[in-house]
Design goal:
Strands 1, 2, 3, 4, 5, 15, 18, 19 and 20 form a 9-stranded mixed β-sheet that branches. The protein has a 6-stranded parallel β-sheet with strand order 9-10-11-12-13-14. Strands 6-7-8 form a 3-stranded parallel β-sheet. With 446 residues, it is an alpha/beta fold. It is globular, with a radius of gyration of 21 Å. Strand 9, helix 3 and strand 10 form a beta-alpha-beta unit. The protein folds into 2 domains: 94 residues, Urease, subunit C, domain 1; 310 residues, TIM Barrel (Alpha-Beta Barrel). Helix 4 packs across helix 7. Bound molecules: (4S)-2,6-dioxohexahydropyrimidine-4-carboxylic acid (DOR).
Length: 446
């Protein structure tokens, strides 16, 4: 492989902002220093005026392979991801067939090794009857066990109490949960159906997928985790009410951590009028008060990680009526710029935005040698123009589904370049399709 010297970068890393040169050799960061310009390198990239941060590690994406490749596939979505500054992804098990066995996990890894432009890992899904697979998975085979404690796309609900208890007792890996109580949702759906028939208005979604549904489920997950001292990561929080259940502070030492997703931080109930079912997702986008509470919880380290929950569906699928339109939005390409809007607006510091998208994710999952600008670590890096506004246009969308919930919105920061394992995967608006990611490695079990 080769070497690359990045000069004059405005680095943001581990709570500090400083100017430095970064020398990359054979995919790793060899040196970070004030003046490395005398060091020989095969190529030089002048980063003056641009931020240099660790690449985003997205711990929640749905890339739809196998089985749903009319919506997305590993190649298409990982291209969109690197254009968005995401250098590693962890992919969800609700493909078809779902990832419920070690064989299917390996098959996903093998496919990603051929086509993924970013580094990758895959969750083992939980069901009411795959406890043996869960018990036998070990570190290196998967980033974690995903438990749908609420039905969503793909029908992978685990609602058998004894099975849930056994998963929390026995899972050798981190447990990542989707928390929405299905009986509460079904009761709400019945009420709205009685009132509106099939024509339920989309702005009822947060009342159907309600705060109570979220709280009932996340409090159960937390109770189970405490009972068994499990390592629990609660995905995509959406309500102010749930936040008191999580402790502020650094990830190190926490057994229970939390994630927020970019769309729940960016959109709120006012956006249903313009976006309709395009922003239907589970859990639902809720009130502006909830959105602001999530942002505050991020700033006080009560929520540890920011991810996307990139969940593409075709425009045709999304254009259906409330009950028929599938939940989920494509997000990876503009996720980081959308998060940086909260930095521009004063909700988060740059250092916090970086910590939530890289350092904290690496700590949560005990990721090896990624997530920081550190000598010896893999050079997963993003260069950002902080003040280079753009309007999101459909023509620029790289996700296979061909649309974005951010269309028409102006975002103030732009991804200028993305390096995956030291290779320029995206630069000057162009993708390098030769680049392939690596399998993510983890230091410990749960
Ligand atoms: O909105 C969502 N879409 N939430 C999920 O839990 C699943 C996802 C999907 O796979 O479409």
């Amino acid at each position: 492989m080769s070497s690359l010297l990045i000069t004059n970068a405005d680095c943001v890393n581990e709570g500090r902002r400083f100017e430095a040169d970064v020398l990359i050799r054979d995919g790793r960061i060899e040196a970070i220093g004030a003046d490395l310009q005398a060091r020989p390198a095969d190529a030089v990239l002048d980063a003056r005026g641009r931020l240099l941060i660790p690449g985003m590690i997205d711990d929640q994406v749905h890339f739809r392979e196998p089985g749903l490749t009319h919506k997305a596939d590993f190649a298409s979505e990982s291209r969109a991801a690197v254009a968005g500054g995401i250098t590693s992804f962890m992919e969800m098990p609700n493909s078809q067939p779902p990832t419920l066995s070690l064989e299917r996990l390996e098959a996903k890894h093998a496919r990603a090794a051929e086509v993924a432009r970013a580094n990758y890992s895959f969750y083992l899904g939980a069901s009411n009857d795959n406890l043996d697979a869960i018990r036998s998975v070990h570190v290196g085979q998967s980033c974690g066990v995903k438990v749908f404690m609420g039905a969503s796309t793909g029908n992978m609900l685990v609602d058998d109490e004894a099975t849930l208890d056994a998963i929390f007792r026995d899972s050798p890996l981190l447990i990542a949960t989707h928390c929405e109580d299905t009986p509460t949702i079904l009761a709400n759906e019945a009420e709205y159906r009685a009132r509106y028939g099939e024509d339920v208005p989309i702005d009822a979604h947060p009342s159907i997928r309600s705060e109570a549904a979220c709280f009932t489920s996340s409090s159960l997950a937390i109770a189970l985790a405490r009972r068994h001292d499990a390592r629990l990561h609660v995905l995509h929080l959406t309500t102010a009410k749930e936040l008191a259940q999580f402790t502020p502070g650094p990830v190190a030492g926490k057994r229970i951590t939390a994630e927020a997703c970019v769309h729940h931080l960016y959109f709120d109930e006012h956006d249903y009028a313009e976006k309709g079912t395009l922003i239907k997702c589970n859990p639902a986008i809720k009130r502006s008060e909830d959105r602001e509470a999530l942002l505050k919880a991020l700033a006080e380290d009560r929520i540890d990680v920011v991810a996307t929950d990139h969940a593409p569906h075709t425009l045709e699928e999304k254009g259906q009526t409330y009950f028929k339109a599938p939940a989920g939005l494509p997000l990876v390409q503009d996720a980081l710029p959308s998060l940086l809007e909260h930095v521009h607006n004063g909700w988060l510091t740059l250092e916090q935005a970086v910590a939530k998208t890289s350092h904290a994710v690496a700590e949560c999952y005990a990721l090896e040698e990624r997530g920081y600008l550190r000598e010896g670590y893999w050079a997963d890096l993003v260069l950002i123009d902080l003040d280079a506004p753009y309007r999101v246009e459909r023509e620029q969308v790289l996700a296979k589904c061909g649309w974005s919930p951010f269309e028409g919105r102006r975002l103030r920061s732009r991804i200028s370049a993305t390096l995956v394992n030291g290779e320029r995967a995206f630069e000057h608006g162009r993708l390098n399709d030769q680049v392939r990611g690596q399998r993510l490695r983890f230091r410990r079990q749960r």
